[in-house]
Each structure stands twice: as structure tokens, then as C-alpha cells.
Amino acid sequence: MFIIVAISVILFSIGNEKINESLTGGLFWVVIFFTAMSGLSRAFVSEEERGTTLTLQLIASPTVVFTGKLLFNLILVFCMNTVIALLYSAMFESFVLKNFGLFLATFILGNIGLAVASTIIAAIISKAGAKGTLYPVLSFPILLPLILTSVQLTLFAFDGTSFETAKFELAIVVGYDVIITTASYMLFDFIWKD
Length: 194
Fold this sequence. Notes:
Blueprint: H1 2-14, H2 21-39, H3 45-50, H4 53-59, H5 62-91, H6 100-125, H7 131-159, H8 167-193
Helix pairs in contact: 1-2, 1-5, 2-5, 2-7, 5-6, 6-7, 6-8, 7-8
């Protein structure tokens, strides 16, 4: 529902004006970011609210718990963002991909980074008192490099830029994914048992 409302608000605010590709690419990732903020923040909150955290700690290792939550968030992120991409391609004339392979690589790598970062942030804030307001505040600086680079790669896909030209930005997104995944698995043990 959030996806439909967000895209509808963008379409109503634009009206009959023609928007350029850079604005379309930026708005695409803004909708993805805010959809993730509304959908992924409760990954660990339900265990804290129902008091099942201790039971989960007794029957499963932290790695298994994190992997399960991460797989669920990956599926959720890919489903939500595929709907966003389909709606964008149907409703925005300037959402024309000249290099679909680059867009697909950006989409996959960006979603993986978004899911991993959102999962570890959800684990951190599940222990806090102000869960609702803390999640976007903590997520924004962590996800900013990923979102900015993904926007740039999406613009490259609109322009038809080759993989060779975009290899630096692709390396940033791959590096981000590797670093955030490694750090998440290393830190989750301490977060989960604290």
C-alpha cells in the first residue's frame, strides 16, 4: 500500500510536467528507501514484544537467527522493489533503460545491501525503547552511500553506459555489500546476546 501511495503522490505532484531521467532515477531509489523503512524495521521487534527472544536464544545459534531474518528480508525487499520497478516502468515515460544488464546488476546488488543493512539495524533498534523513530535515523547514514551509488548506476543504465565505464560505482556497491554482510555476521552475536 505504501508503494502505491508514494508513487501516486509523486505522479500527482508532477502533474503534466515532463521530468528528466536523473529525477526519475533519484525518485525511484527514494521510494525504495522509504518503502524499506516502513517494511523492514520490525524484523526483530516481534520477538521483543512477545518475549520469545530468550526461547530463540536457547534453541538457535545467533548465525542461524540472523540468516533466517536476512533471507526473509531479502525476499521481502526483492518482492517490494520489483513491484516498484514495474510500476515505475509503466507510469513514468522517462524510465527507459538503455542498458538493462547494468540496471539489473544495480537492482540486485542494491537490494542485497539494503536487506543486510536493514536486518542488522533492526536487530540493534529492537533493544531500544523508541523503536519507530530510531530506525530511519540510524538507517539513513548507513544506507546513504548505497543509495547514492545506486542512483548513479541507475542514471548510467538510463544513458546506456557500459559496464566498463560504470565499474568503479559497481565496485563501491559490491564492496558495500561485502563489508556490511561481514560486519553484520561479526556483530550480531554481541547484539543478540546483549
